[in-house]
Structures are given as structure tokens and as C-alpha cells.
């Protein structure tokens, strides 16, 4: 394997550079330049240009790696290393001026995520982790919360963009959790949600209809912060399966039980 700690330091620089570009472009952003991938699935030139910037830089860091990217600026060639990138996670927030969005860069080696960097642009918060080395926020070690039960937990979630066939089941899960936990929050960036689990700002996060680039970086940050990640059946198909459940170890099972009652 390559020196992942060295790659991490280089990737952190790339994430910050991408964040600087996003921040600059937000000042004069024209909402008329937005494109629609779906009814409420939006993309801007900022997404595309940021992705190009990231891909160019990462190719220099790890020339032997493939890419999985949200905007499709690079393709997969079946190599052992794969960068999984969301250049602007929280595009809708960005477009509307809601300051909750991030740059998300994960690195997969064969079947496992081994590195993750998430830069929350407006808060200038850089979350990162390498397998076996712990999780960090701006240089400080972070850990998941110690909440012992759902009844003392704050839970984050996200809403689907297109998979509305299960929306009634999802709403039932929301109601069940509302009746059990301290509250629910929807930030609009799965990468940030996962990082907030990792640093204990929220105790758990769940969402469906997700893509690999939504979660790749955040997943390893949660795991390295001492948390647990699964799909909705306690399995490990959370990268490509579309379902993610992340929390501390104390509440994970009871959290999942509430979902499985209706899912």
C-alpha cells in the first residue's frame, strides 16, 4: 500500500483548496446558472469546476487510482485504489445561500475505505481520518458521543431526492424517532451529518437513497471516532446499498430496531 498518512496530508490541502474556490464563487453566485439533474436534484457550474480541480490534484497525488465522482468528470478502470468524491455536498444549500455544505473526498483500497477528508467550508472545519489512526477535526482527536439510549439522543437524517416510493415508511420512522429521542435534525449534507456523529454533535444519523460519494469519506471518520456504521439491516452494504445508519455503539441496535419495525 501507499503511505496513507502522506496521502492524507496532501488530500487535506486539496480539500481546502476546493473549499476556497467554493467560498469565492459563492459571493457572486447566479442562481440562474443552476441545472436540474432531477426535479429537486440540482447542480451548478461550481460543482463541476470544483470536481475538475479536485480530480486534477488527486491524479498527481495517486496516479494509479480510479475515480467515482458525482459529476462524472473521471471514470473507473478497475484499479485497486479508488477516489470517491463529492465536490460540493449540499448543493441545494449552496444555491440558496444556506451555509451548510462541504467537500467530501474518500479513498477506497480494494473493498475498504481507508481514508476520508471532509471540509465544511463555512465553518472552516476539516474532518479527516486514516484507517487505524483515529479521527480528527482541525488537528484535535474526536470521538462519538457517549449517549446511552435513544431517549437521550439527537438524531440527524436526510430527505430523498427521487426515491419517493418508500416515503410513507420513512415518515413512520421519523414519527417513531420523534417520540423517543431528544430531536431530529436535517442539515442537507450527508458528509457533514456523518462528521457530526464522529465528533458527538449528534448521536446518530440515518438516510436512504444515498450514493457512494455521499458517504465514503464520512463513514471512515465515524468508524475511526469509535462509532458504528451499517445499512438498515445491520449489514455492511452501506457504500453502494443506498442506506446508511451511523451512531455510537450504545444506541446503534435500538436505533436500527426502530427503523426495522417499518422498513
TrEMBL record:
<dbReference type="GO" id="GO:0008934">
    <property type="term" value="F:inositol monophosphate 1-phosphatase activity"/>
</dbReference>
<dbReference type="InterPro" id="IPR020550">
    <property type="entry name" value="Inositol_monophosphatase_CS"/>
</dbReference>
<dbReference type="InterPro" id="IPR033942">
    <property type="entry name" value="IMPase"/>
</dbReference>
<feature type="binding site">
    <location>
        <position position="88"/>
    </location>
    <ligand>
        <name>Mg(2+)</name>
    </ligand>
</feature>
<dbReference type="GO" id="GO:0046872">
    <property type="term" value="F:metal ion binding"/>
</dbReference>
<dbReference type="InterPro" id="IPR022337">
    <property type="entry name" value="Inositol_monophosphatase_SuhB"/>
</dbReference>
<dbReference type="GO" id="GO:0046854">
    <property type="term" value="P:phosphatidylinositol phosphate biosynthetic process"/>
</dbReference>
<feature type="binding site">
    <location>
        <position position="86"/>
    </location>
    <ligand>
        <name>Mg(2+)</name>
    </ligand>
</feature>
<feature type="binding site">
    <location>
        <position position="89"/>
    </location>
    <ligand>
        <name>Mg(2+)</name>
    </ligand>
</feature>
<feature type="binding site">
    <location>
        <position position="70"/>
    </location>
    <ligand>
        <name>Mg(2+)</name>
    </ligand>
</feature>
<keyword id="KW-0460">Magnesium</keyword>
<keyword id="KW-0378">Hydrolase</keyword>
<protein>
    <recommendedName>
        <fullName>Inositol-1-monophosphatase</fullName>
        <ecNumber>3.1.3.25</ecNumber>
    </recommendedName>
</protein>
<dbReference type="InterPro" id="IPR020583">
    <property type="entry name" value="Inositol_monoP_metal-BS"/>
</dbReference>
<comment type="similarity">
    <text>Belongs to the inositol monophosphatase superfamily.</text>
</comment>
<keyword id="KW-0479">Metal-binding</keyword>
<dbReference type="InterPro" id="IPR000760">
    <property type="entry name" value="Inositol_monophosphatase-like"/>
</dbReference>
<dbReference type="GO" id="GO:0007165">
    <property type="term" value="P:signal transduction"/>
</dbReference>
<dbReference type="Pfam" id="PF00459">
    <property type="entry name" value="Inositol_P"/>
</dbReference>
<dbReference type="GO" id="GO:0006020">
    <property type="term" value="P:inositol metabolic process"/>
</dbReference>
<feature type="binding site">
    <location>
        <position position="214"/>
    </location>
    <ligand>
        <name>Mg(2+)</name>
    </ligand>
</feature>
Amino acid at each position: 500500500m501507499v503511505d496513507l498518512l502522506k496521502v492524507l496530508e496532501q488530500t487535506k490541502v486539496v480539500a481546502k483548496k476546493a473549499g476556497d474556490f467554493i467560498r469565492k464563487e459563492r459571493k457572486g453566485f447566479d442562481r440562474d446558472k443552476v441545472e436540474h439533474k432531477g426535479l429537486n436534484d440540482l447542480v451548478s457550474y461550481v460543482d463541476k469546476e470544483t470536481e475538475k480541480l479536485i480530480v486534477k490534484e488527486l491524479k498527481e497525488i495517486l496516479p494509479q487510482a480510479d475515480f467515482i465522482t458525482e459529476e462524472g468528470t473521471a471514470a473507473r478502470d478497475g484499479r485497486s485504489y479508488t477516489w470517491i468524491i463529492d465536490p460540493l455536498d449540499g448543493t441545494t444549500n449552496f444555491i440558496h445561500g444556506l451555509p451548510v455544505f462541504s467537500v467530501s473526498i474518500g479513498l477506497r483500497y480494494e473493498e475498504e475505505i481507508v481514508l476520508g477528508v471532509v471540509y465544511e467550508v463555512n465553518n472552516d472545519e476539516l474532518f479527516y481520518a486514516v484507517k487505524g489512526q483515529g479521527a480528527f477535526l482541525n488537528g484535535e482527536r474526536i470521538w462519538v458521543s457517549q449517549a446511552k439510549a435513544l431517549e437521550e439522543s439527537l438524531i440527524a437524517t436526510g430527505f430523498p431526492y427521487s426515491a419517493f416510493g418508500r416515503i410513507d415508511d420513512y415518515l413512520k420512522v421519523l414519527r417513531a424517532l420523534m417520540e423517543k429521542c431528544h430531536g431530529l435534525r436535517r442539515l442537507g449534507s450527508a458528509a457533514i451529518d456523518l462528521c457530526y456523529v464522529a465528533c458527538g454533535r449528534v448521536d446518530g444519523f440515518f438516510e436512504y437513497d444515498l450514493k457512494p460519494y455521499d458517504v465514503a469519506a464520512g463513514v471512515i471518520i465515524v468508524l475511526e471516532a469509535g462509532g458504528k456504521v451499517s445499512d438498515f439491516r445491520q449489514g455492511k452494504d452501506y457504500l453502494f446499498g443506498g442506506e446508511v445508519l451511523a451512531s455510537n455503539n450504545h444506541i446503534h441496535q435500538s436505533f436500527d430496531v426502530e427503523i426495522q419495525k417499518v422498513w
